[in-house]
């Protein structure tokens, strides 16, 4: 069900040190580091993300959380997006490939009624072209 999730951090340096330490003793390490967001996990798969609240989009009054739900295919991602909009969600990003994450990453992002960033993702989409 849950593919990955993330939180925003007010004290970026302190949060990086904290999560490096506490997740490290559990066997999790930095899998991806974008300077303003770090994904922790194992075996090349970041499951938990922290983001710097002072880095633009993450900043805001609600300290949103991000949850990504696994989808069976690209049609399921589209169905999630359509259902979310019909239920009153705000579109953040329409369904598309996100090659900057990894080849085959197909996702759609919406803002739920409480202001959280909710995504549906499928990891096996064919490349564009």
UniProtKB/TrEMBL annotation:
<dbReference type="InterPro" id="IPR004360">
    <property type="entry name" value="Glyas_Fos-R_dOase_dom"/>
</dbReference>
<dbReference type="InterPro" id="IPR029068">
    <property type="entry name" value="Glyas_Bleomycin-R_OHBP_Dase"/>
</dbReference>
<feature type="domain" description="VOC">
    <location>
        <begin position="1"/>
        <end position="123"/>
    </location>
</feature>
<dbReference type="InterPro" id="IPR037523">
    <property type="entry name" value="VOC_core"/>
</dbReference>
<dbReference type="Pfam" id="PF00903">
    <property type="entry name" value="Glyoxalase"/>
</dbReference>
<protein>
    <submittedName>
        <fullName>Glyoxalase</fullName>
    </submittedName>
</protein>
């Amino acid at each position: 069900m849950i593919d990955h999730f993330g939180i925003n951090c007010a004290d970026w340096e302190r949060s990086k040190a904290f999560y490096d330490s506490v997740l490290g003793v559990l066997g999790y390490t930095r899998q991806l580091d974008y300077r303003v967001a770090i994904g922790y996990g194992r075996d090349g798969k970041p499951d938990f993300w922290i983001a710097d609240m002072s880095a633009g989009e993450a900043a805001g009054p609600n300290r949103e959380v991000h949850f990504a739900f696994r989808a069976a295919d690209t049609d399921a991602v589209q169905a999630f997006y359509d259902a979310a909009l019909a239920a009153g969600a705000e579109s953040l990003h329409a369904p598309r490939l996100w090659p900057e994450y990894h080849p085959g990453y197909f996702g759609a992002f919406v803002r739920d009624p409480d202001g959280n960033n909710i995504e549906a993702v499928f990891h096996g989409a064919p490349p564009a072209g």
